[in-house]
Amino acid sequence: MIRKSLQQKPLETLDTHQKALEVNLDPRRYGTFAEIGAGQEVVRWFFRVGGAAGTIAKSMSAYDMKVSDAIYGRASRYVCRERLEAMLDYEHKLNIDRLKEQRGDTTTFFTFANTVSARNFHGTNACHGWIGIKFQAHPQDEDSQIILHVKMLDDEAALQQEALGIVGVNLIHGAFALHHEPELLVASLLDELSTSRIEIDMIEFSGIAFRHVDNRLMSLRLVELGLSGAAMFAADGTVLQPSEYFYRKAILVERGSFRPVCNVNLDMLRCANEKFSKLPSVAGKEVAQVMELTMNNLKAGGEIDLNDFLARADVMSACGMPVLISDYFRYFRLAAYLSSLTKEPIAITMGSGSVQELFDEQYYASLDGGILEAFGKLFKNDLKIYCYPMLSSDSGELITCNNLQVDPQLKQLFGYLRDRGCIQDVEDHNPDCLRIRSREVLKKIKQGDMSWEKMVPEKVADVIKRKRYFDHNPEFEAIEY
To answer: How would you class 58 by CB atoms within 10 Å of its CB: exposed for 0-12, middle for 13-18, buried for 19 or more?
Structure first.
């Protein structure tokens, strides 16, 4: 039988059967499948389509925990990244140690692995999994790796297993056919599927084939394509899996444009955290503080400007802050998402102007219950909103919850939420921060007005000047006025 290259058939026409078959018919690809939980759903495709003898060195599953520990070492949990990486490392090393001398010059070895928790008999477990592939893009090449986390949304275990098999085939085929185009690879992961069945909320590329990949952009891509409602990365750019990062932590979120991060942004977080941490339900617990960018904000100018996104990401990272990218423009949707990640208290901090906008009923016109339905969902789990004061540009008056102007018909609702402690003013704010507006800072940067440097944290100023973000021009600043 003549084996064909992966690139010979147009990628957009390939279904799951064709993808598995093309991998099987490529003489370069040879490796191991190791799957824990949810059955041998991925390797089953490669056995089913034919030609698997030229592709599969070994297929295995270790359902018993003691057996799994004996092979891969002990793990704190069995459906976690730690276990997946142990599986990938162990099996891939075995392949190379055993087979490199005989066929290393012509073969690209790979290991596919997953550890998955599908729906149990009682339907009481979280249905999710870690999936990954470690592979050589070319014979004798250094290793490359793709790891992703999925949430399975089907109501039946059999359907979840089916979806898992498809996304696994898409990952393997994409690793071989699209490693040079990672954005297309990400887009191909849900071929033959939909986000009503599978969500991918974390993906990480590493190794020689992906040495130029910025995983922050790949996180953005997940949300932009709708593969997930949110994605996250740490201050050092490392991608994070939200449910693991927020596990058993109280959460404090600040939403903003962060063009750039200003002193007022950090003061807002500081004030909110001081008050939040004193709550009896939070005291003594770890509080995860995070800055959130919404897709709505990133697309405010039309299409997403990737350079602008990276500039924002870098200035947030300079402040040591993890970044959450979300498609949850409405706050009650953000609250519902965060509530699914932790059972600990959640708080959102915002300026008094944003609190005022929160009471604009036009944002809830599509809801049957209008603003009452939205607020019922927003404050369902005792969520707190911490209001940072604002200086009125007209009168210079300090705007707080005490004199905030809302629609007269909503004053009683606002008063009720204040009396319940759902919406609270922060305390001990820095008066020097009140006149800082990110739009004005951005304008000063573009105009070469050096006074902007005093309005942002020192590390943020250093990043902006070093990388010339936000149209910063050092030659323009050197001109004396």
So the answer is: middle
**Contacts of residue 244, Cβ cutoff 8 Å, sequence gap at least 6:** 80, 81
What pLDDT score was predicted for residue 477?
A: 55
pTM (2 decimals)? 0.91
CATH (one of 1.10.3210, 2.60.300, 1.10.10, 3.40.50) for 244-433: 3.40.50
**Where in the chain are all domains bearing CATH 3.40.50?**
244-433
Is the pLDDT higher at 126 or at 410? 410
- pLDDT, one tens digit per residue, over 405-436 is 999 999 999 999 999 999 999 999 999 999 99
The segment(s) of the chain belonging to CATH 3.90.950.20 are 6-213
Alpha carbon distance 62, 42 (integer Å): 15
